[in-house]
Amino acid sequence: MDHARLKRPDLSEARIRGRYAAERRFRFYGQFAVGLAIAMLGVLLFSVCSKGYSAFYRAEIALDIMLDPAVITPDGKSDADTLASADYQGLVKEALKAQFPEVTSRGDRKNLFNLVSNGAGNSVRQAVLADPGLIGSTQRIWVVAADDMDMLAKGFIKRDLPESERVVSDTQIGWYDKLDAAGQLRTAFNAVFLSAGDSREPEQAGILGALMGSIFTMLVTVLLALPLGVMSAIYLEEFAPKNRVTEIIEVNINNLAAVPSIVFGLLGLAVLLGVFGLPRSAPLVGGMVLALMTLPTIIIATRAALKAVPPSIREAAYGIGASPLQVVSHHVLPLATPGIMTGAIIGLARALGESAPLLMIGMVAFIVDVPHWPTDPATVLPVQIYLWADSPERAFIEKTSAGIMVLLAFLISMNAIAIFVRRKFERRW
Amino acid sequence: MNAISPTLAKMHGRKVTVHYGSKQALFDVDLDVPERMVTALIGPSGCGKSTFLRCLNRMNDVIDGCKVGGEITLDGQDIYDPKLDVVMLRARIGMVFQKPNPFPKSIYDNVAYGPRIHGMAGTKGELDEIVRGSLEKAGLWKEVKERLDQPGTGLSGGQQQRLCIARAIAVSPEVILMDEPCSALDPIATAKIEELIDELRENFTIVIVTHSMQQAARVSQKTAFFHLGQLIEWGDTEQIFTSPKDERTQGYITGRFG
Fold first, then answer.
1. What ipTM does the predicted assembly reach?
2. Beta-carbon separation of B114 and A320 below 8 A
3. Contacts of B104 in chain A (CB under 8 A)
4. pLDDT tens readout for residues A14-68
5. I need a surface site. Which of A225, B145, B229, B240 has the fewest CB within 10 A?
6. Do B59 and A315 touch (CB under 8 A)?
7. Between chains, do A427 and B104 touch, taking CB under 8 Å as contact?
8. Does residue A199 sit within a domain?
9. Domain span at residue A15?
10. Cβ-based contacts of A242 with chain B (< 8 Å)
């Protein structure tokens, strides 16, 4: 062979420099993309948390309340029912009147009473129920401030705005400052937010109703979608004959994964509510609808996980004389579990954040009671967040963000469980 | 062809054909596997020797579009009889694969798996005994007895392959099929496996597919030469390697093709 004409690799400096530069650029693009993604996530989390943290504490006003036996036990009986149903809100109002005797006109008194929440009597009721011996004495009790006072205490209402442009009047600010100066104002942990259902009054609105609704809905979704999805995938991947019918089923499962979620809501409305007459606004129905929506995702992920199990493991098991069921349950499924869990996380996280299909089956209703069972009327976290975001009161802004924080916390704990399961089954090859 | 008396043969293949979809991989193979001997299947890549091996324990059933024709018998019983339970067949005919494929479980569980699913041990003690005996027969006991609870995948390639042999013999099969068991191993590990095969011959009937003609000459008593899906020649190993009848066999063993 003619040696001179043989083509040699170009080993020039310029080529090597160019290659290094291209590699550096490529790495930079990657780092830039990761940095940008982290920054955007950081901004999102910061904006939610900085707006939402204030919902976890609330303003409270201390009042010297005369626990008048004539009001609490009008007919002399002091059984639990009488004690629980007394007009404590009236006692709170009396205490306010006593604190500000100069307020006499009807309109001013109404403004004065608006300093406290119309749930303020609850704190008094609790005090009396805890110790009925207090009846007849005057006690200093911390009651919940109205949402406007709460906003004032948290600095969300600008005092330098003209009076006509704020929700609290100058007189109310005057009373507020007097209470503050007398040490009758404090901010305390807002237990109501984590222990109550929804309310039209921001200071009495809680997330627990929506949280329980989401938990029940997710339970129904997991219990339906995971076994159904995994079993379908195992059958299609391991046992079904490869023919026209299974091919059509496969294509349709893939298509189903792309169907807009609201369509599943319409299906739930027409079939589950319309034909089967299941209860409206119930987590049971919501969970079934979301399970339908999640099924294709879980089936696709499970099939991919099953495919990823090396054929050598299957052959080894068959070679010893394991039956097809034993091959799947002893070898293939345990090895595919991490992949199945990843698919389940993706599917369930999407279901948890879903609101559109739930609107169709009535889970958007205003529900005060905390649900105790999957058939109780309920709403879910994303819908609750939407409802609060739509409310006009200033105090609902922080509730909205706090709701998002609770939703994220739920999501993270759900994922943590899935990651735990995945770790448990992860094996080194 | 020098026929073996039928009473001595453990397995018979008669007019065995295999189709993968529309492609025919085996053409009318007639082959007998004599009992307690090592039968080596040799031939160039793609000649159908592995395909034939996988017919012997119906591993081809698992492959889509694979059709097996003709007749294969084990102790006179047709193994493709629809009434025959393929799981029981594979318990009687064990298999060792080209690449060591231990389960991602402990060494103990790898060997104990077969006896467990076939209900061979009533007590933990019996199972321990089977595991120990199998590992001893596979020449692995001394190396792993201190770490039976460690993953089988943590062993070296040669140890893994011996573990796979231990796993296969733990269910006391009558026949062991080996599909190029040494192709992924170094010469020292290969030598150990070959020694082991020679020992196993006392109790088991062995069919081994190999690419190495030296290996076939060293370990087998019978050799079958496959070419392009046809069985060209089979007989005593010594005869095949010293005085082959067919010129294609001659060409292959002298290294002129393949």
1. 0.90
2. yes
3. 313, 335, 427-429
4. 999 999 999 999 999 999 999 999 999 999 999 999 999 999 999 999 999 999 8
5. B145
6. yes
7. yes
8. no
9. 11-52
10. 64
